[in-house]
Specification:
- The complex is a heterodimer of chains A (about 150) and B (about 170).
- Chain A has about 150 residues and is mostly helical.
- Chain A has one domain.
- Helix content of chain A is about 65%, strand content about 0%.
- The two termini of chain A are about 20 Å apart.
- Chain B has about 170 residues and is mainly alpha-helical.
- Chain B folds into 2 domains: about 1-75; about 115-174, no CATH class.
- Helix content of chain B is about 75%, strand content about 0%.
- Chain B has 8 helices and no strands.
- Chain B has helices at about 5-20, 25-45, 50-70, 85-105, 115-120, 120-135, 140-145, 150-170.
- In chain B, helix 7 (about 140-145) crosses helix 8 (about 150-170).
- Chain B is globular, with a radius of gyration of 21 Å.
- Chain B starts with a helix and ends in a 5-residue tail after the last helix.
- Classes of the chains: A mainly alpha (about 150), B mainly alpha (about 170).
Chain lengths: ~150, ~170
Amino acid sequence: MIQAHDSIIVRTLGRIVIPIAQLFGFYVIVFGQHGPGGGFVGGVILAASMILSILILGRDAPGSWLVPKVLRGDGVGLLIFAGIGGLCLIGGGQFLNYTHLQIPGLDEASRHYVGILLTQFGVAADVAVTGVSIAISLSSDDEYEEISHG
Amino acid sequence: MTFELPLLIFLVVTAAGAILVKDLISSVFILGTYSFTLALVWALLGAVDVAFVEAVVGAGLATVFFLLTLFSTLEKDTQIRRSPMPWTALVALPIVAMLLLYGAADLPAFGDPGSPASTHISPTYLENSVQQTRTPNVVTSILMDYRSLDTLIETIVIFTAGIACALILRKSDS
């Protein structure tokens, strides 16, 4: 069902919009501690841009190497999030207490800042992978079977 | 404050339209309009993060998911016959509405500094967020630091949703 769109207008516009959307999603993740946004919203924007690239350019477009790789990334975001919590445990504190992140040269508040930033990337990765995965599942065609089964 | 009434009327109209329209693709887009209007309402109330999530998820991603679902089904709502409203609903719904309005009369005023939500633990977060976490956006510091275990479980829920969709919807004959 998913193949490259015929209209040149849609394809050209997609080539312009998709990089801007991905850049904006990344900005929302990084800027989430100083303004509205955060890992969840940024991950959804990244997922939407990738779904747009699947719908417009098709799976075989040059440069769409990201999407098959993303589909294999189930659980990577969760691993990042829980891994940060595990690092806090290793550092001698409670689970997800960023004070005990053993980063030399940072005071307590900066460790919390870094912990929040890293866990936001975890949430963003999880949400983006899940969004693309659900979109692929809803439009399940046989092409993607070899990817999903490794 | 003058925008509240038009936004609320538009919200009710789009919500009713999304249910009543026969063409399902139109219904999906009206639902997206509803979500975007709701995002404007959240932004008007000062909940900018919630408005952001509502606009991106409700008007963006959910619309795409609904459309992808519709591509594999029929676009017209042919099966569902809307039966006339049963008399129990005609009696019960006004009573429930009266009870809800009666309960809403006891709610604290919007932005009341003496309300329980403003006095319990949120002053601690508001006062200590910048010193303890260097994070000016208190919503992010609450979600990711003070309540990070809850956020971890929510992330697990999203992950489980993706896994469940893949298990149910993808064909597995290989």
